[in-house]
Design a protein that fits this description.
The chain is mainly α. It is built from 14 helices and no strands. The longest helix is centred in the middle third of the chain and has 26 residues.
């Protein structure tokens, strides 16, 4: 919610915070979000409420532009904040449509199960009993989610899936804590990641789109190995973590619903969001070694997403762009 957050921060500021350049930038970003919401709505049997909200947002945006051109910056800012809130409400309503909820939960469940299976290989009941107990609790929770899905209890399934996601994250932290400076564990993680990457790549050889992502992951693993050899264990740990995230994304892409479609406008909007963030955060990458690693990967993902857009692979473009945004903002 980068743009919405930015709009709200502007709204909370004083008049000295206002300048034409920041408002102009926010206007174009808001316009891009509105187009994305419209593209998401395109072809759907949307409710009258959503259509009305979209029209109101469009009217408010045109009003904001008129106020901006008249130099009434404070009023223009207030209009942009309003439009952002309306647009994100629309997008949230579209994403939560009941007929899509089951598919989305099953998709997220599959990705979470993949992460859990990967972490399970690194849990030793004797050496890390806390992690082992957490692993058991997470397994049980995922089974409960499956049971709720079978019974069409989507609200319960979604709530428990969120808890399971938090447990997987906590489990990852428990496992990574000793691994960050332990050369043996880091070497073992590197070997495991390479095995998983090879297995995934073999299963996706008929899908050239994923070979570019394979090469990006391999680049990170080569650099991680170099850092290991230099005994720079913290840098190696960071690169392995990035590789793990990319590998997870590769698995998601290869196992996603092949019937799923996405319009070009939505994919282009996701790509543009990543481009804007890359431009804004370039200086930060020069002064922060850890962030620089994420920034380089986000930049590479931008190139892959841009190529996917040119080839008409809009879903792949959107997924790459979203992961790049994730690298820059989390």
């Amino acid at each position: 919610l980068h743009f919405a957050d930015q709009a709200i921060r502007l709204g909370a500021g004083n008049r000295s915070d206002l300048n034409r350049e920041s408002l102009r930038s926010l206007y174009f970003e808001t316009e891009m979000l509105l187009k994305r919401a419209g593209a998401l709505l395109d072809g759907r049997d949307a409710s009258k409420q959503i259509v009305t909200m979209l029209r109101r947002a469009d009217t408010e945006l045109r009003s904001a532009r008129s106020l901006f051109e008249k130099g009434e910056l404070k009023l223009a800012q207030q209009k942009l904040v309003t439009v952002n809130r309306i647009v994100y409400r629309i997008m949230d309503m579209l994403e939560r449509r009941p007929e899509r909820e089951k598919d989305r939960i099953e998709f997220d469940l599959e990705g979470l199960q993949f992460s859990l299976n990967t972490l399970e290989q690194q849990v030793d009941p004797q050496q890390t009993p806390a992690a082992y107990r957490l692993l058991g609790r997470t397994r049980q929770l995922l089974e409960e989610v499956r049971s709720h899905v079978r019974k069409q209890q989507m609200g319960l399934a979604r709530r428990k899936l969120r808890i399971a996601n938090q447990l997987v994250l906590k489990l990852s932290h428990l496992i990574e804590r000793p691994a960050k400076t332990d050369p043996e564990l880091l070497t073992e993680n590197l070997y495991t990641l390479r095995q998983e990457l090879t297995a995934l790549s073999s299963s996706g050889q008929s899908q050239p789109a994923y070979q570019s992502l394979y090469k990006l992951i391999e680049q990170n693993l080569v650099e991680a190995e170099q850092q290991l050899n230099r005994q720079n264990y913290l840098a190696a740990s960071r690169l392995l973590k990035l590789s793990r995230q990319l590998l997870y994304q590769m698995n998601r892409l290869m196992n996603r619903d092949q019937r799923a479609t996405l319009g070009r406008e939505v994919a282009a909007a996701d790509l543009e969001q990543l481009r804007i963030l890359l431009a804004r955060m370039e200086n930060s990458a020069r002064n922060d070694e850890a962030f620089a690693m994420r920034y380089r990967n986000a930049k590479n993902l931008y190139r892959l997403a841009e190529q996917a857009l040119k080839e008409g692979k809009y879903k792949v473009c959107s997924e790459y762009a979203k992961l790049g945004v994730n690298f820059l903002t989390k």
